[in-house]
Amino acid sequence: MFNEHQDYLNNDLNNQTISRLIKIIHHNPNDVIKIFSLLKLCKAISVFNGLDFSIKKKIIEELPSMKKMEVLNNLSVNDRLSFLEKIPKNLLKDLIKYLNPEEKCKTLVSLGYPENSIGRFMIPYYITIPKTWNVQEVLDYIRKEVKNSDVIEIVYIVDQKGKLIDDVKIREFLLADPNTKISDLMNNSQYTAVLNLTDTEEEASKIFSINNRVSLPVIDDQNFLLGIVTVDDILWILNENYREDLQKIGGMEALNQSYLNEPLYRLIKKRAGWLILLFIGEMLTTTVMQKFSSVLEKAVVLALFIPLVVSSGGNSGSQAASLIIQAMALGEVKIKDWWIVMRREIICGFFLGSILGLTGFIRVIAWHNMNLFNYGPHWILVGLTVFFSLIGVVLWGTLSGSMLPFIIKKFRGDPASSSAPFVATLVDVIGLIIYFSMSYILLRGTLL
From 47, 323, 394, 439, which residue has the greatest number of CB atoms within 10 Å? Predict the structure, then answer.
C-alpha cells in the first residue's frame, strides 16, 4: 500500500497534526519506518520527540544511514541527549559517528556532565553582547547575526573574558532610544538569577519558580557563561520526575516508557521486586498474629477491630510520607529539618489519633447500646482499648511515614521509594504489637 500510493500518502501524512501522526505510528508498529520516511524533516523531528523510547530506538536503528544522520543532527541538543543517554553503550558509539563535528562536540560535552545535573540540559544558543554597545548596535547585531538562538527574549551581557555581568529583556531594547548605552539599561546590582553547572534538576526548578523567567543562564564557579536553560526544558524534567515518583510511591520501579508500550516481561519484572519485598514484610504481620493467638482465643471480639486500627495507622503513615516527599521535592524541607518535622508530626499524630480513637470509642458504645452488636459485659474496656490503640497506632504511622524519607535521603536514596505500600507494611507490624499490647494492659483480669 505504501509503495503504490506513496505520493498521496506523503501529502496526506504531512498535512496531519503531530499528535495524529504519533497515534498513526503507535497503531501501525509494523509500518513505522515507512511512515516516518514519508515525513518532511521538520515534521519528522517533531513526531520523533513525541514517541516512546522503544519506537525511537527502532526508527534510528532501521532508518537508512542518510536519513538517520539527518534526524540525529537536527534534533535539539536536549532532545538528542535525552534519547542517547538511554541507549546501550555499544549502540551509542555507533550513533555518535553520524553527528557532524559541531553537534558531536555539543553532545559529548553534555554527556560528560553528572546525571541529573542542569549541565545536561543547557543549550548553547543564546545572545551575548558587551556592555559598551548602544541599543542600535544590539538591534543590528540581532537582525544580522543571530540565527540559532532558541530564546531571543533575553540578551546576556558579558565582559571581554565571557563572564556574565547581567541580562536585559529584548523589550527594553525595543522601547529605548537607539543611542542609549547598554550600561544604562543594566540593573547595576549583583546578578543572582543564575544556575550553576552542577545544580540538580530540583534546585533549578526552584530557582525558575522564584524568578519567573523563560530562561536562565548557566555559569561555572568562575562566573563564565556556558549556556542557558529554558522553562520548557524544566517543565519536561518536572513532568518526567513526577511520573517516576508516582510509580515509585505506588510501590514499583519507574517505567521507561508508556504503559501500553512497556514490554510485558519488563512490566512484571519492575512490579515483582517490590511485591515480593512487601509480601515478606507482611509475613511479619502473620508472625505477630501467631504470637498473640492466645489473646485472640480468649477475646475474639478484639479481632473485629484489627482492620480498623491497623489501616488507620497505614493511612496516616501514607499521608505523612506523601507530604514530606512533596516538601523535599520542592526544596521546602532539608535533611537538617528532621527534628522540626518529627515534633510537628508527633503533635499531629497525637491529635489525629485522638480524633479517630474517639470516633472508634463512640462507635463501640453506639453499636452496643443500639443492640447492633453485643461486645460483652466489658464493652467499655473494649471501647477504651480501641481508643488508646488508635492514638498509639496513628502516632506511630505519622512518625514512621514522616521519618522514612529523611532516612532514605540520608543514605542517598530516592525519598519517593519510601512508598505508601512500604510505610503501610511497616505500620501493620508495629500497629498489631501496639494493639495487642494495649489490649493486654486494659483487659487483663477481665477478658484476658
Answer: 394
